Amino acid sequence: MRRFLRHARTSAVALAGAALLTSGLTLGLTGSSSAAGVSVHPGDFTGYGFDRCMTPTQAEMDRWWESSPYQAVGVYTSGRNRYCADQPDLTREWVARQSQTGWRILPITVGRQAACSPVDRYKSWARISNNRTRGFAQARAQGVEESAESVAAVQALGIAKGSTLWLDIEWYDRSKTRCDKSTLAFIESWSEATRDAGYVAGMYSSASAAILSASRRLDADPSWAGPDQLWFAWGNKQADVELGPYGDERHWPKGLMHQYELDVLATYGGLGMHIDKNWIDLGKGTRPGRQGKRCRTSLDHATYPRLAQGSVDERVEAMQCHLRHAGYYKGRIRPEFLPRLTSALVSYQTDRGLRADGTTNRRTWVSLLARGTNRTEVDVVKIGSGGPAVWRLQRALNATRRAVPITGVFGFDTMNAVTRYQKRRGLPQTGVADTATWQRLLAGWS
After folding, report:
1. Which of 106, 139, 340, 399 might form a disulfide with 74, Cβ 3.0–4.6 angstroms?
2. Do the Cβ atoms of 132 and 70 come closer than 8 Å?
3. Which structural domain range is residue 353 located in?
4. How many CB atoms lie within 10 A of CB 43?
C-alpha cells in the first residue's frame, strides 16, 4: 500500500497534523514453527503486523520470524489495480509454510477504485461506476464481481473460510457526494458477497476517506451492511486502534487495524525491508490457549525457590509434574519432597549438565520450566503470541527472578522481561523469545 497511499498519507497528515516517522516492531519467522500453526487468518489476534508491495521471500520471512516483533503480514492476492501484480513468491506452498510457522496472513484486494480517485493510472474500466441508476446498481454489481475474484484468489492459495479478506480502497475526495455514495455501494455489495462466501469482510482505506465515510454511514443507518473489520491508514506513529476524528470505534468492536507508519525501512536480524507498520486488534484478541499438562496442580507461581528433601511446599508438586513429563519421576504428585524426588532430580541434573545436588536450585527450575510438560523446547514467541510456549516462557522468566504475570499471552511485560534476560546473557535485545533465548533458558541460565 505504500506506493499508492500518497494521497492517504498526505490527507491524513494534513487533517490530523501528524508526521510520518519510523519506529516499530516486526513479526518474524523462525527455525522452529508454532506448535499449532494458524488456520484462520488472522483470527483472534492483538499484536504487530507489516505489509509491503512485494511478497517477502521465504528467507526474509524466516529471518524476521526469529528477530522481529511482527506476527502478521499483508500480501496482495488480487485486484486489477495492484502496483505489484506479479508476485512470484506468493504461492499456495508459501502460505502453507507461513501458516505452519505462526504467521497470520492479511490477503489484500486492490480492485476497482473510486470514480473520483485522483490517481491517473486507474483507468475508467478499473473504477467504480458512478451511475446513480437503481441505487448505484452497477457499482453494486461490480462489488459482487470483485468479491468473487477476491475469494477465488485466496481459495487458490489455501486460505480457509473464516479468514478476513481486505478490500483496499485508496484515498479519494469524499466531499464529492455522488462518488462517495457509489463507493459505499460498492463496498457494501463486496462485503455482503464476501460474507456469503464464508469469509470475514475487511476494508482498508485512508482514515480520511472510506473509513470516515463508512463510520458516518453507520451513524446515519446502523443497518448498513458494510465491512466487519477496518484497517485504517493514519500515519500518526501511534500503535493503537483509536480512530480519533475519523470515526467511531464502537461500530467495529475488536475489529480494527491501524497502519500507523508508512514506507519505512525496518531492519531485523541484519535484513532490511521497506514496509508499512500496523497495530492489530481483531476478533477476541490474542487468547492464552491451552497450558499443557498440569498434573491437577498449579504450575504458575511468582517465585520458584530452592527446595530440598524434607520440604513441604505446593511448588514441590510443580517440580514433580515437570519431572514426570520429562520421564524422570513416576511417583505421586504431592507437596512432600521425598527421596524418590531427590533421585529424579539428580538424574535430570546429570543428564542436563546441571549441578547434581538433588535440590531445586535456580538453574534446575529455569531448565525444567522452559522445557514445560509437553516435551516441546524451542518455539519462537513474541508480542501477540499465546499458548503453551508463552506459559512456559513466563514461568521460566519468573524462575530467573524477572517477575512477569503468568497469563499465557505475550504482552509488553513479557517482552520487557525477555529483553532484560537477553541483555544479561549477551544476546541481541529484540524482546523476541527466539531460538538463542530458548537455548539459554533450557540450559538453565538465569
Report:
1. 106
2. no
3. 314-442
4. 18
Query: Does 409 reside within a domain?
Result: yes
Average pLDDT, the chain: 92
Please identify every stretch of the chain with a pLDDT value under 70, giving residue numbers as ranges. Answer: 1-36
**Residues 250 and 383 reside in one and the same domain:** no
Q: 110 with 123: CB under 8 angstroms?
A: no
Q: Is residue 435 one of the residues assigned to a domain? A: yes
pLDDT in tens, 255-271: 999 999 999 999 999 99
Is residue 292 one of the residues assigned to a domain? no
CA–CA dist 440, 446 (Å, integer):
8
Residue 191 sits in the same domain as residue 336:
no
The predicted structure's pLDDT at residue 36: 57
Q: How many domains does one find in the chain?
A: 2
Q: In which residue are the cell numbers 468479491 written?
A: 147
pTM: 0.90
Residue labelled with grid coordinates 487495524: 257
**258 forms bridges with which residues in the sheet?**
232, 279
Q: Are 423 and 440 within 8 A, CB to CB?
A: no
In one-letter notation, the amino acid at residue 184 is L
Q: Identify the H or E element spanning 202.
A: strand 200-206
Residue 240: φ, ψ to 5° = -150, -175
User: 321 and 254, same structural domain?
Assistant: no
Burial class (CB within 10 angstroms; exposed 0-12, middle 13-18, buried 19+) of 64: buried
